[in-house]
TrEMBL record:
Domain of life: Bacteria
Entries under Gene3D superfamilies matching the protein: NAD(P)-binding Rossmann-like Domain
Pfam family, one: adh_short
Organism lineage: Bacteria, Bacillati, Actinomycetota, Actinomycetes, Micrococcales
Name of the protein in its database record: SDR family NAD(P)-dependent oxidoreductase
InterPro entries: NAD(P)-bd_dom_sf, SDR_fam
Species whose genome carries this gene: Curtobacterium citreum
Stretches that traverse the bilayer: none
Length: 221
């Protein structure tokens, strides 16, 4: 059995992705900061027949993130799929004229340093397997900066650049790197925007291994 590690796992998209990949036989490593919530989610998934376990980590703390991914590998099996999709904090979304250099530290640690730390932890195992998928999930500000969400716009741009470079660097090693841009709110009442629908799109990115960037729907004009 191989494992999908979901960094930023929660009861919405994280749970839906866990269920979707779990149906395909993956074990699921759930990673976020709150162990109690992770344990509850793992128990819920277990009732659906999905093998899941929670590993608490803060993506801004490289040591804790690496340790969580290492423990997941030891306890669940090799990580074949990594999904990096932690939800940014509200304080990262300040208007551009109110944003200081210090305000950008958190978003950059969260989106850039965290993703690099996660990838560097799991990539050797994917190389050993001879296959792997790394999924980046971002909002529309990753490709169209928003003046009222400066921190995420800057940090997502850095994350996107890293992901694109990574895609080009490891493609010949049978490791697919894909980015899903979601320009809408998940679970906003529209069926196409449900967590389950987005999870299905992520499964397609993994299984079909197409282009680097996929849009859940076109960006609004």
């Amino acid at each position: 059995m191989t494992t999908i590690a979901i960094v930023g796992a929660g009861k919405g998209l994280g749970a839906a992705v866990a269920e979707r990949f779990g149906r395909e036989g993956f074990a699921v490593a759930l990673i976020s900061r709150n162990q109690d919530r992770l344990d509850s989610l793992a128990a819920q998934l277990g009732e659906s027949g999905v093998t899941a376990k929670g590993f608490a980590a803060n993506v801004r703390d490289g040591d804790s993130l690496r340790a969580a991914l290492e423990a997941a590998t030891e306890q669940l099996g090799p990580i074949e799929v990594l999904q990096y999709s932690p939800l940014p904090a509200k304080e990262y979304m300040r208007p551009v004229l109110e944003t200081t250099a210090e305000d950008l530290v958190g978003p950059v640690e969260f989106s850039v340093y965290g993703s690099v730390n996660a990838v560097r932890q799991v990539l050797p195992g994917m190389r050993a397997l001879g296959t792997g998928t790394i999924l980046f999930v971002n909002g529309g500000s990753a490709v169209r900066p928003g003046a009222r969400v400066t921190g995420t716009s800057v940090a997502f741009a850095g994350e996107s650049a890293y992901a694109q470079l990574l895609h080009d660097a490891v493609a010949e090693e049978h490791v697919h790197v894909g980015q899903l841009i979601i320009p809408f709110g998940i679970d906003d009442g529209q069926d196409a925007h449900s967590s389950a629908a987005v999870a299905e799109r992520l499964w397609t990115i993994h299984s079909e291994r197409g282009d680097f960037r996929t849009y859940a729907e076109p960006l609004p004009e």
